[in-house]
Amino acid sequence: MLPNLRIILTAAGCPGWGDIASALRNNGERAIDIIAVDMAGDAYGYHLSEHWRRVPPGNDPDYIPTMLDLAEEYEIDAIVPLADPELLPLAENKALFRENGVVLSVADAESLRIVCDKISLYGYLNGKSNAIPDYRIIDRADKLRDAAESLGYPDRPLCFKPGVAHGSRGFRILSEDSCDAENIFSEKVENMKFNITLDKAVEFLDNIGDFPPLLLMPVFPGEEYSVDLLISNGKILSTVCRLREKITFGLTGIGEVVDNPDVLRAAEEIAILTGLEFNANIQLKIDTGGTPRLLEINPRTSGTIALCVAAGVNLPYLGLKLALNEPVEPVKPLIGVRSYRYWTQVFTYDKNLE
């Protein structure tokens, strides 16, 4: 009989928190008590846990001391972080937490410094993986036009994004069809809001003056995939390849577990090259020649992990077991399982939250 666990699950307000908490609790082996934490004063995950606590943002100097105090107060066995800004600070303090009897389900700091910055990531993988497309780095507004033309614009659609960003902040698609009047009634807002003309982009960046370096790269026309991986000491134990059929505001609205050997091979290669551990998510899209191209890496449990669990691979729990140095057997997913995202709510009555 495995011992019961008490863990901290962070980012209690993120869209996938409820599904991840459910997967951890419904593991079929042991009881897991979850303490929900978030930097917000009232996150929905607080209402799904017996214990909760507000904590500073991951990049705040008080974050690590606060987490250490909570770990001692609640006699925590492990911490599972779900917010990107928390990953590197926690990884850099693994030894400190270990001294206090707490394991962290997070990759090593060296790996995170590579994958959490898209510009560093592309530079590191360039020449090592076929998943890296032709790209340019833009650090001045006057470079954008020449760089775009060198990549084939306007005949070839392009996009740019900061090296470090969360959600879709800073992401734009260069398009001469940006918000044309004829599209007002035919296009939904989420399909048009990222478009910007090259002239407008140059003008906008020039007015900003000082902006973070941008990654300029092609927009790929093919299907988009999200691959969830379970990794231990450089070995891939399990993978789940999800086709993202419909994406709304960055989240998978409709998805399906599929078997795409090319996509799986690319994702597994990238995971090994970058030294990822435990749970990780790699997003790729197919280019005009049929090659999977890297979009980004989430070096943590992904928000749409419920589809993996439904397909028979409880990745959040298996990743936690790996962090605890417990044996884990490889598991293959059921192919063809589909997910349809919808919104729901948590209702509270007379519960005071600070």
Q: What's the helical proportion of residues?
A: 25-40%
**Order of strands in the sheet with most strands:** 15-14-11-12-13-16
Average pLDDT taken over every residue: 91
Query: Would you report the number of β strands?
Result: 16
Please give the oligomerization state of what you see: single chain
- Level-2 CATH architecture of the domain at 5-105: 3-Layer(aba) Sandwich
CATH topology of the domain at 5-105: Rossmann fold
Which segments are poorly predicted (pLDDT under 50) over 5 or more consecutive residues? none
> What is the terminal-to-terminal distance?
39 Å
CATH class of the domain at 5-105, please? Answer: Alpha Beta
Rounded to an integer in angstroms, the radius of gyration calculated over CA atoms is 21 Å
Helical element count? 12
> Can you tell me the overall shape?
globular
Structural class: alpha/beta
Q: What string, H for helix and E for strand, traces the elements in order?
A: EHEEHEHHEHHEHEEHEHEEEEHEEHHE
